[in-house]
Amino acid sequence: MGLIAFFGAVAEQLWLHYPALLRGYQVTIALTVTSMALALVLGVILSLVRTSDWRLGRLACGAYVEVFRNTPLLVQLYFWFFALPKLPSLDTHLPYLGTIDWLLSPVQAAVLGLTLYTGAYTTEALRSALRSVDYGQTEAARALGLTYMQTRLHVVVPQAFRIAVPLLTSILSALFRNSALVSVIGVIDLLAAADRIQQSNFQTFELFGVAGLLYLSLTLPLAWASSRLERRMARVR
Amino acid sequence: MNDVLTVGAGWEPFTRWAIWGFLLDGFALAVRMAVISMLLSLLVGITMAVGRLARPRVIRWLATAYIETFRAMPLLLLIFFVFFGSARTPLKIGPVTSVVIALTLYNSAVVAEIVRAGILSIASGIMEAARALGLSYLQSMRYVALPIAVRRMAPGVVSQLITLFKDTSLASVLSILELSRSARVIYDTPTYGNPVEVLTIVAAMYFIPSYGLSLIAQRLEAGPERRTAATVTNAGGRGGTPPDAGR
After folding, report:
1. Do B195 and A83 lie within an 8 Å CB cutoff?
2. CB contact under 8 A, B180 and A75
3. Which domains does chain A have, with CATH numbers?
4. Residues near A41 by Cβ (< 8 Å), separated by ≥ 6?
5. Is residue B202 part of a domain?
6. Pick from A118, A208, A223: CB nearest B77
7. What is the pTM for the complete model shown?
8. Which range marks the domain in which residue B86 is found?
9. Which tops the pLDDT comparison, B71 or B144?
10. Can you tell me the ipTM of this complex?
11. pLDDT digits (tens, 9 = 90+) for A12-60
């Protein structure tokens, strides 16, 4: 009974405040999609370097992954938003770039922070996928006369991507949840939007309930897809 | 004076013990919150895993709903829900307790899945073999199945402890003086104004224990009895368990 009344009140809050809440929802989705796209590009490049023969590149990428995985996202966001502008400005003497003063807007800092944090995880996921592609594939491609880069980009990477898809799906789901942290540097995402309304009308449970349901609408399908993909991969093997 | 405000105090504050003591207090609080909620998460997580594997349908559904809901929620939302939500009820939960409760809600759901995978990974043949050798059900559980299951869960639990330790930084949104809030208090002090230096030190204070734990998790993964098996699978191209997803 109480539960039905609660969901009624949740629906009422959504009805009353849907413009602000849906704007926050959009911000959360936009931040997540942008950061995931950038993190995937970063992950592909860095995982290729990490599995290459270039020793210095391997070490640098390994250091990047360990540092960004083993420090809290919150501290990283603080760093990009509060600490970066304190660095001395850089005069590049280049057209368009000019002097870089490191000052980022909250949204820029959020995208940078989420991308670099998630990039460490996508790099790891793609690295283990790249290593799990049978070496015979590389040998066969090289024997057919493909160059090193052709082999990696046209033979190994597509197969690795398919192997990594279940894990990348859960990384995307984690990114959706992690994106709630950007409210601490002043981005009005879904959580911040709900929090703002809650502070004025004191319908705390109801508004965080709305936010929770909206987050679940994004993360539950991903969790379901991830476990299905994993099961299908297990069967294919 | 103006110069100090724009340039900041740099590394100078770190030559004083008081600053280190302040940061170490925050560090100790972060560790305490992580350890307490890990213990609670193990307790709740094991209960939920057993519940999800239980025969009665109601228990199975309840445990599944708990696990799937809390695993899919942003931790910050859970913290807000517990703290600001409880403030609207007669039951006013303090900030530190709220964070521990929220951390436990989220992590117990994750731990439950790790435990469930560990239990499911024990082939039924192992239990049957133990029973055939004359061990009772409880003996074969205690001496054969559980040691294997615990060893398989260990790497997952240790990596979850890393996540948990990093997630204690979210307590700073409730103005709890844990490590990252203490950092902010220092660099927000007008005469210091040195976020680059303070955040670098604080990042290192998070990094060292987390990285140490990740090395332990790696060693546990290639544990003594699995080393040969792991080498064989690596040669075949499929190395170890996949890395985690960032939460």
Report:
1. yes
2. yes
3. 13-236 (1.10.3720.10)
4. none
5. yes
6. A208
7. 0.88
8. 2-236
9. B71
10. 0.89
11. 888 888 899 999 999 999 999 999 999 999 999 999 999 888 999 999 9
